[in-house]
Design brief:
alpha/beta, eight-stranded parallel barrel, 10 helices, binds phosphoenolpyruvate
Length: about 250
């Protein structure tokens, strides 16, 4: 079975004005001969301009969330089709910040994944346990349940990725140990192959949570790690390129 091509995606969260497009350009200019697929997911209002700024480069552009519907009375929301129309080719779904702040549950994330697929976007579906869940020995149970509940059958035959992001490691400077990452990624892989058969073996499983240039090599080379979802360190070309070149 072919190993998945690694994907390294930057999640800019609610950061970045038009001036930050220069940083995106610097990332594209510094890619060198990386074997990874590289993506940047800026705030929705920057997707179009970033797509234009990165046209002709291998850097993909993605959204950070998408609605389940294609259009309608949903003030403040963005449809997957709109992201695609603006030049996005991927979208992050079910990020723990959205699960926590907007109470997004697995079935909603699955519905968003269906909408993303219908719009031709590649979803990056996030799962991950809280500190309480890890400390009470429930990390695997929680992540397996989120993975089962957030991945609709319609993903069969489509390009998508799963991102394991322990909530306690996001933006905190704490990272999971390589052993813990390998254990959780192995459990996610088992769900993927049970659900999607052989195709489940080629889905990249990204790790996310305080990935930096200093810890990227050991994380990216761990078993079943198919890339990274990077928050803070994707905001500067220096740090993001440091992670990309650790592969
Ligand atoms: C994230 O927001 O997906 C993330 C992993 O953030 P950070 O790298 O800053 O921990």
């Amino acid at each position: 079975m072919t190993a998945p091509t690694p994907l390294i995606a930057g999640n800019w969260k609610m950061n970045g004005l038009a001036a930050a497009l220069a940083e995106a350009r610097a990332i594209a200019d510094g890619l060198g001969g990386t074997t990874a697929r590289v993506a940047l997911c800026p705030p929705a209002v920057l997707v179009h301009r970033m797509s234009e700024a990165l046209a002709g480069t291998p850097v993909l552009v993605g959204g950070q969330d998408a609605h389940t519907e294609t259009s309608g009375a949903f003030t403040g929301d963005t449809a997957a089709e709109m992201l695609a129309d603006a030049g996005a080719s991927l979208v992050i779904l079910g990020h723990s910040e959205r699960r926590a702040t907007y109470r997004e549950a697995d079935d909603l994330v699955a519905a968003k994944a269906r909408a993303a697929i219908n719009a031709g976007l590649e979803p990056i579906i996030c799962v991950g346990e809280t500190l309480d869940e890890r400390e009470s020995g429930r990390a695997i149970e929680v992540v397996v349940s989120q993975t089962r509940g957030s991945l609709p059958r319609e993903l069969a035959g489509k390009a998508f990725a799963v991102a394991y992001e322990p909530v306690w490691a996001i933006g905190t400077g704490k990272t999971a140990t390589v052993a813990d990452i390998e254990e959780v990624h192995g459990a996610i892989r088992a769900v993927l192959t049970t659900t999607f058969g052989d195709a489940g073996a080629t889905v990249p499983i990204l790790y996310g949570g305080s990935v930096k240039p200093a810890n990227a090599a050991e994380i990216l080379h761990a078993a079943e790690v198919g890339g990274a979802l990077v928050g803070g360190a994707s905001l500067t070309a220096k740090d993001f390129l440091g992670i990309i070149h650790a592969l």
